[in-house]
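Task: sequence design from structure.
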């Protein structure tokens, strides 16, 4: 429990964090990696180079300070981050390391403004926040390990099959190397894949959505060739090769107990968790009305078109495909698609039900635009919209 004095001191630093947050977190990462280079095995180095990770951490620190007297306000975000932590192997022993170098970074950047009272308040507050993460993650590790077929940390999987789904996306069918059964997952969840790329000093970890319903002995991920790890998977690994995988995680999951109409909206590789949701909903709720909206550049870049149509054929699912740059072949083949983008006109034309459950996945800009359209054009309540974010949470507003 934080004292009133500690709370007041932390809240007084909010304006400073808004101004110097990214400088502090940049300094934090520099200090921590210099002292503990082994932690580079757990961090996405692409995000480090792009500096998006420091922006995300700055937003999280800012949110913690602004809500220090009501930490329950950020529990949903804490849980989302905890899923990621569990999936990559963050443990209780890592939190004191983070705390040490975060406090050093605050002192380095703020200098004399970081008075002993401020530093003591932040040390106390960090302990409370760290304990919240550790407690939530303990339960997640316990669940991952104790469920039937479950495991903690990483397990070796074999690539059973590779299938090209589009010009950019390839599916990998993964089976445990030990032949054991797999634990079920919720539609929309992801796994972390850890690989050792030749010539790289550290392991690389990336999250990929499970792109099919749960079948018991095989997981499917569908990977866009974009970045170091995905390029390695596409170009270097073949059927029979192995990778390390963590147990399924994530809170962007289908509510399969809802009887509301279901609207799944995606763009590009954002289709992957939607395929899992589509398969699962049709299987478990065969009479549920589903509108499946997917945007792609054209048929060459459109993954799972045939699979989506097959699933929809004998169900109450309606697929709608939007191509922004259709090819001549797309017209010649006479395949069904809407030309352009998902906009106000299309949403109104589809007469989407404002009382539906909405799930959206794509780029940050795409998801923000969809949220705006759904709430302003359809009048749907904001809490009916669920979005998936794999990259760092960059906006402070997302935590408020």
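Answer:
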């Amino acid at each position: 429990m934080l004292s009133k004095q500690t709370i007041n001191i932390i809240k007084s630093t909010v304006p400073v964090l808004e101004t110097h947050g990214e400088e502090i977190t940049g300094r934090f990462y520099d200090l921590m990696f210099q002292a503990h280079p082994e932690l580079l095995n757990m961090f996405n180095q692409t995000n480090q180079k792009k500096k998006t990770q420091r922006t995300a951490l700055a937003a999280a620190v800012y949110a913690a300070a602004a809500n220090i007297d009501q930490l329950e306000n950020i529990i949903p975000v804490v849980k989302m981050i905890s899923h990621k932590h569990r999936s990559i192997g963050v443990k209780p022993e890592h939190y004191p390391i983070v705390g040490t170098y975060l406090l050093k970074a605050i002192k380095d950047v703020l200098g004399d403004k970081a008075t002993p009272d401020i530093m003591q308040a932040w040390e106390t507050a960090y302990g409370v926040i760290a304990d919240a993460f550790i407690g939530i993650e303990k339960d997640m590790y316990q669940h991952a390990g104790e469920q039937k077929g479950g495991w903690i940390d990483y397990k070796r999987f074999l690539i059973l099959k590779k299938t090209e789904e589009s010009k950019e996306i390839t599916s990998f069918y993964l089976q445990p190397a030990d032949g054991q059964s797999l634990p079920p997952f919720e539609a929309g969840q992801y796994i972390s894949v850890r690989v050792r790329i030749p010539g790289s000093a550290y392991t690389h970890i990336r999250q990929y959505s499970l792109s099919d319903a749960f079948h018991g002995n095989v997981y499917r991920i569908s990977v866009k060739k974009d970045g170091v790890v995905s390029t390695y998977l596409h170009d270097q690994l073949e059927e029979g090769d192995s990778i390390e995988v963590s147990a399924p995680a994530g809170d962007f999951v289908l509510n399969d107990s809802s009887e509301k109409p279901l609207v799944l909206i995606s763009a590009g590789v954002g289709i992957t968790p939607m395929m899992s949701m589509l398969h699962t909903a049709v299987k478990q709720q065969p009479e549920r009305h589903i509108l499946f909206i997917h945007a792609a550049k054209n048929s060459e870049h459109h993954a799972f078109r045939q699979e989506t149509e097959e699933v929809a054929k004998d169900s109450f699912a309606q697929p709608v495909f939007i191509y922004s740059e259709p090819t001549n072949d797309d017209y010649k083949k006479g395949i069904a698609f809407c030309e352009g983008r998902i906009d106000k006109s299309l949403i109104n034309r589809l007469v989407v039900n404002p009382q539906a459950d909405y799930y959206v996945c794509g780029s940050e800009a795409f998801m923000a635009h969809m949220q705006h359209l759904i709430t302003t054009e359809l009048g749907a309540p904001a809490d009916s919209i669920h979005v998936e974010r794999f990259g760092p949470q960059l906006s402070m507003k997302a935590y408020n």
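The first strand starts at residue 154 and ends at 164.
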